[in-house]
Amino acid sequence: MPRLSDATRGRVLFGGDYNPEQWPEKTWHEDVRLMKDAGVNSVTLGVFSWAKLEPEPGAREFGWLDRLMDLMHENGIGVVLATPTSSPPPWMGRLHPETLPRDAEGRVEWWGGRQHFSHSSATYRHYAAAITEALAARYAGHPALTMWHINNEYCTFDYGDEAAAAFRRWLREKYGTLDALNTAWGTAFWSQGYDSWDGILPPRHAHYMKNPTQVLDFRRFTSDMLLECYTAERDIVARHTPHIPVTTNFMPLWIGQDAWRWAEEEDVVSVDIYPDPRAPLGAQNGALVQDMTRSQARGPWMLMEQAAGPVNWRGVNHPKPRGLNRLWSLQAVARGADAVCYFQWRQSRQGAEKFHSGMVSHAGEQGRTYQEIKQLGTELARIGGEVSDRHSVSDVAILHDWNAWWAGVQEGRLSTQVDHPAVLGAWHRALWEANVTTDFAHPEHALSGYKMVVVPQLYLLTDAVIENLLAYVRGGGTLVSGFLTGVADEDDRVRPGGMDARLRELFGIRTLHEWWPLDAGETVECDGFRGTLWSEEIEAADEVTETVPYKGGELDGLPAVLRRGRAWYVSTLPEPEALRALLSGIAADAGARPVLAGLPAGVEAVRRGELLFLLNHGREPVTVAVPDTHEDLLTGETVTDRITLGRYGAAVLKP
Ligand code: GAL
C-alpha cells in the first residue's frame, strides 16, 4: 500500500490548491517563479475543473492540464491530482436533474454553487467514474503525479427519491426483515410500524419530532454512501497507479462522516483546518483536529488546506497577524503533519471566494502574506529531512465515535446546550493546557498501550465498547468518563437504569436517579469547583473509593465526581481550570506526564520522535527552560538551558 512518504520523499510537502484555470497562461509562469522562490514543492490541481475538462457530456479537454502537468514537472513541483467530482458542470443538472440533491424540506440544491451532486445518483456516479477513468488513464505515467485527491470535502446529504431507494436497500442489507427494523427503530411508538419497505423514507420534513433511530441510520447511510462514491473513484485511480497514494480531504471534526471508517480506506489521511485567528482557543482547536487526524492516520498525515490569511465564510473574517501562519503551520508539523498546504495558491479575483486569502494575496509578491509564506517555505525545507516520517507517541487517548455523536444530537433530548464537539473540546483543552499530548481513539480500538483513557462523552455505546473499557481497566488502565456516557445501545435504546449496568458498577454508581441539565450560563457548586452544563442525581455504591460532592442546591451532598479504583466518573462539566486540575492530577498518578513541566502559559511543547517543538501562542516573548543542550533546527543555533521565543515564536529542538 503506498504511503504519504512515497509522495514526500523525505521532505515536508509545501504548497496548496492551485486553480490556474482562473488565470491567463502568462500568469502560470509568474506563479511558477513565485512558487519556486517560496519553496513550494506540491500543488493540487483540478479540484474544481470538471466543466473545463468536460465542457459537454463526454467531451475531453485535457490540453491545458497537460501543459500544466508538464510545467510543474519541469520546475520540480509535484502534483496532487484531484478528481473534479465535487462540482459537476451545469450541463449535468440541466440534462439530468436527478443528479441534484434535495434537502429534508424537498428543496433542490441547484448548480451555481458547488457540491450539488446526489451521492446516490447512478447518473452522477456514472459520469464521475468516467472522468476519473479518463484522468487516471491519461496521467498515470506522468512524472509530476505524486498523489491522487478524490473529490473535495465530501459533505452532502440527499433526501430525494433516488436516495430514498438507496436508503431502503441499505436498511434491507442491515436488518434483513421489516420486523428487525421495526424493533430497532422502536416503531411501536407513535404508530410508526412499517408493513412495507417501500413505505420507508429518509427523515424528511415532518410535523413533529422524527424517529431518532431513523435519523441515526440515515446519518450512517449518508456516511456510507459518500464513502462508496470515494472508494469507487479510488479503485479506478489505484488500478492505473497502484504505487501512487490516494487521499480525500476531511473537514475538521465534521458530523457527517464516520472518519474512523473513512481513514481505513485512505493511503493518506488529510484534513482542512481553519481556526479563527481571533479565537482565544484557536491554537487548541487546531491541536485537537491535528491530534484527531494523526490518530486516524496512525502516523504522519497531510494538512491539505489552511488559510494564509482570512477566510470569507465567517460573519467577520480576520486576517492572521504576522507570524501566526508560521506558528500554526509548525504546530501541525509538530503534531505529525508531513504536508503543510493551503487553500489556495493565488487569491481569486472573481467568484465566491475572492475575499478568501491565498498564499499570494491581492497584494502580490510584495504583500506580507506571500513574504511570510516564503519564509515558512525556507524553514520547512530546512527541517523537512529531520521531521518527516517521524512519529509522535501519546500516553493518553481521548475516545470519540461518530455514532455516539449522531445519536446524542437527536431532537427530544434533555438539553440542547450539550454540544458534543464543545464537550470534546473542553476535555481536550484541559489536557492541552496541561501539556499532556493526546491521541484520539475509536472506542473499539486496542487501548492497553495508553496509561490513561478519557471519555468526554459517549452517549451511545455498543456492548463491544463496554467490554473494551472494562478490559482496559481490568488490565491496569485508568479510565475517566464524562456525563451522558453509556446511556444508549447501538439502536439508541436507553439502557436499563439510564446507564449500562456494567459501567455503573465500574464507576461505583448504585442508582442514577435523574439527570439535571443546567441552563446556559448556570453553574452548580461542587466541593472545590463549579460545574457547568449538566449535573446528575447519583447514589453511590458502597464500593466507591472516593467522591467529590455537589454543594448546596437540590443535589447537595450527592457525588459530582466518583472514583472506584482506577475508574472515574464526572457527572458535570467542571469549569476549565478545574477540569484541567482534575485530569492532569489523574494523568500524573497514571504516569502520563506533560511533555515539559513548568511551561509559561500559552507555550505548547510537543514531541515528534526525538525532536522537541516549542510554540509560543502568545503575543509577548517568553523564556522557556530547556533540559540539556539542543540545536534549534530553525536557526541552526545551539540552545543550552533556556530559549527565548518571540511573539508567536517557535523552535524545533534536536538533542
Ligand atoms: C474548503 C474547501 C476549499 C475552499 C476553502 C475555503 O472547505 O475545500 O475549496 O472553499 O474551504 O476556506
Helix content, binned percent: 25-40%
Which structural class is indicated by helix and strand composition?
A: alpha/beta
* Ligands, ions, cofactors: beta-D-galactopyranose
The CATH class of the largest domain turns out to be Alpha Beta
Count of all domains: 3
Strand content: 15-25%
Describe, in plain words, how this protein is organized in 3D.
The chain folds into 3 domains: 344 residues, TIM Barrel, CATH 3.20.20; 195 residues, Class I glutamine amidotransferase (GATase) domain (Rossmann fold), CATH 3.40.50.880; 52 residues, Sandwich (Immunoglobulin-like), CATH 2.60.40.1180. Helix 16 links the parallel strand 12 and strand 13. The model has no long low-confidence stretch (mean pLDDT 97). The two termini are 33 Å apart. The strands form 5 sheets. Strands 5-4-3-2-1-9-8-7-6 form a 9-stranded parallel beta sheet. The chain is an alpha/beta fold and 655 residues long. Bound molecules: beta-D-galactopyranose. The site of beta-D-galactopyranose has 10 residues, from loops.
